[in-house]
Design a protein that fits this description.
The protein is mainly beta and about 270 residues long. Helix content is about 0%, strand content about 45%. Bound molecules: copper (II) ion (CU). Keywords: Signal.
């Protein structure tokens, strides 16, 4: 039985306060923690990114990514993961902007998408894909700059209230404990904001009852998490996860209800 932990991927160069003082969470440690069921071998990849020299706020622009193996040869076959060949997350440097989109596969390792960004400043594009035959997904990232006067960065402060109203839903985020370097349960609970009635008929969204992305405030750690089961249709959806180091993380839960996607952002502090 597969456990629905898709991936924990360290994209940082050095995790200063990483688990056990290690620079990275070693794979063996993850295996000891029972995270190996879906934490398999990652195929090493390279990516060539093509974006326009000049990107302006609110203007559409193309992003093209060519996925290659370590020898520079295009990888042409990919596995469908959560119904897509590639998932792409774009965040602003202050994590105030978040989007989760899906480039189109053009063949020969090339994925394309057109998007726009709301304001000037730096953005990180993080992309996930699984070359055919790999046991786990690979991640590539790329920083782009949108021209113009960037608005003041929004401080990434831990939320004081773990319940908020988003799109007419009252959404609560809770944890069994929130500490780095150990498995933990992260639970979203969704109610109707007006009636307070629990929502019990969430709809599957890309093959799961929810998706969650967590990124550390220095943008170095990136986690993409899926619920433990496919039969929790609400009001609660539980994700098992593992924060590779202490610090402040922004988490976005994504759920589908009545055909619409609800995005629930929270900022949490993870202690050691
Ligand atoms: Cu996706």
């Amino acid at each position: 039985m597969k456990r629905y932990i898709l991936s924990i991927l360290l994209v940082g160069m050095v995790a200063v306060s990483g688990c056990s003082g290690a620079a990275h969470v070693p794979m063996s440690e993850m295996e000891h923690k029972g995270m190996s069921s879906m934490q398999g071998k990652v195929t090493p990849t390279n990516a060539d990114w093509t974006t326009p020299k000049e990107i302006k706020p609110n203007e559409e622009f193309p992003i093209s990514i060519l996925i290659k193996d370590k020898k520079g040869k295009a990888i042409s076959k990919f596995d469908l993961v959560h119904e897509k060949l590639m998932h792409m997350i774009i965040v602003s440097k202050d994590l105030s902007y978040f989007s989760h989109i899906h480039p189109q596969y053009k063949g020969n390792g090339e994925f394309d998408i057109t998007t726009s960004l709301p304001a000037a400043g730096d953005y990180d594009i993080i992309t996930e894909f699984t070359p055919k035959g790999a046991e786990d997904n690979s991640v590539q990232r790329h920083r782009i700059h949108v021209k113009g006067d960037a608005p003041a960065a929004v401080p990434i402060e831990p939320d004081k209230h773990m319940t908020k109203v988003i799109d007419g839903k009252k959404i609560t985020l809770s944890f069994d404990h929130i500490m780095a370097c150990m498995d933990l349960d992260m639970k979203f609970t969704i109610r109707d904001a007006k009636t307070n009635k629990p929502i019990k008929n969430l709809e599957p969204y890309m093959g799961a009852m929810g998706h969650a992305v967590a990124i550390s405030n220095d943008l170095k750690e990136y986690l993409h998490i899926h619920p433990m089961t496919t039969n929790e249709k609400g009001p609660s959806v539980t994700f098992m996860t593992y924060f590779p180091k202490k610090g402040v993380y922004k988490i976005w839960g994504q759920f589908k209800y009545e055909g619409k996607i609800i995005v629930a952002p929270f900022v949490v502090k993870v202690d050691v």
